[in-house]
Each structure stands twice: as C-alpha cells, then as structure tokens.
Amino acid sequence: MSRSGLSVEELRYSDIAPYYMDILPEGDMREEFIIVEGSTISFMVSEKFYDKFLGLVLCVVFTVEDGEKEIFFNIVPHLNGQRRNGLSGSLGSFNSNHMWIQYLKSNVLWGVLEGAIDFLEFDEDCLRFSLTLSVSGGTVKKLGYVLRCKQMDDDLKVVLKDKQLVNPASIYEMKLKEFYYKFLPRQMEEMISWYRHKYEYRYRNGPNGYNSDSDGETD
After folding, report:
1. What is the pLDDT of residues 37-77, one digit of tens each?
2. Which of 6, 76, 194, 202 lies 20 to 30 Å from 12, alpha-carbon distance?
3. The organism sits in which domain of life (predicted)?
C-alpha cells in the first residue's frame, strides 16, 4: 500500500488538512460513531446549538478490489437544501480495505465562503445541515459521524433531546486536545513530537532560533 499526501491543490477548500485526518488498516467502525444508512448525514441545528457546534468527524470504512487503486472522495454539503462548500480530493492509493477518519469544521462545510451562518437569512428557528459523501476507486462499506461541540448547558441539552434535533449520542463536548486524543491519536502524537523538536531546537539555539556559532541560520 502506498499513500500520497493530501495537498491544498487537490482540494477545493484548504481547511481539510492532513492533521485533521487519519487512514488506518480496516477494522470495524469504532463504537463512538453513529452509523448512517446510505451516503447522506443529516441533522437539525438551532441557532443556540450552532453557537456551540464546532465540527463534524466522519468515519468511512471503504473497500478496494482488484489490486491497488487511487481513492477519490467528494463531499457535498447542503444547508436547508442549498448546496454549500464542496470538498474533494484524493486519499492516496490502496490495495486493501481501510478506515478513513476526517474532522471537518462546521464553517468549512456550511458557511458562506467558510464564514459563519446567518440564521436571519432563512427566517427559521432550525436549519437542516446535511452532507453527501461519494467515493470512487473503492466502495463505501460503512459511514458514520459524531459532532464536536463546546460545553453546553443543561437547558440546551434538554431542548435538543425533546425536539429530537440531533442524536444525543452523536454529541461530544470536547476541547481540541481532548478531541485529538480520542479520535486522531496518531496525529496528536505527531504534533507533540513536532513541538518537542521545535522547542528542543530553540532551547539549544537560543530564543531567536539560531546558534551564535552559526552564520545566522534560522529555523
């Protein structure tokens, strides 16, 4: 199996970055994810919930047959039926089944030019957020998701449950570091290693990032 890296040029929007994703040899979908039937994820969002909604984590188990193939993806989000920011690119080349985990910020998918959503534009209390995933070069075996949110008060949780806007089991109230440890642990380890190397370099070479014995080279 070989895998080419994601690059901005392969994507329509830049915030779907390598450090927001991981690809693992296939295992069964993790129990944290809400499995959906078909290729579309859909849920309702009130303005108060939107203020707490940070992003969506996709989990895709895909199969590959007949040798090594490059896997392409296409994500098409809709907001109340209006198409929003499409995302597409290559995951790399694979010759076996794998699991792809991808974190997507809410504004990258549904915001106008990746900005915030104006509920006044729709004149509705709740909006339907959805996205449809398609894959070429392989077949989607399972599709699941969870929602990352800021800490919510009990009143908002009761409203979400009573109005059945979203599946309560899909909501994870997590800060970024905690989120990485749970859903993208390998990326967290890589970032820790990178920061450790960076700080060790600065410690050895001084606060300005260079060694006084060198010719002024910086990092």
Report:
1. 999 999 999 999 999 999 999 999 999 988 899 999 999 99
2. 194
3. Eukaryota
Q: How far is the CA of 173 from the CAs of 8, 30, 50, 58, 178, in angstroms?
A: 29, 18, 13, 16, 9
Six-digit token pair at 213?
């014995």
| Cβ–Cβ under 8 Å, residues 187 and 22 | yes
Contact status, residue 10 vs residue 178, Cβ threshold 8 Å: no
* Tens digit of each residue's pLDDT (9 = 90 or more) over 153-212: 999 999 988 888 899 999 999 998 898 889 988 876 655 554 455 555 566 676 565 444
Torsion of CA 103, 58, 92, 73, to 10 degrees: -110
For the chain, state the CA radius of gyration.
20
The domain limits of the chain are 8-183, 184-219
CA pair distance 118, 120, nearest whole angstrom: 5
Q: How much is the pTM?
A: 0.78
What's the rounded Cα separation, in Å, for the pair 172 and 125? 23
The token duo for 217 is 């080279």
The token duo for 193 is 């290693």
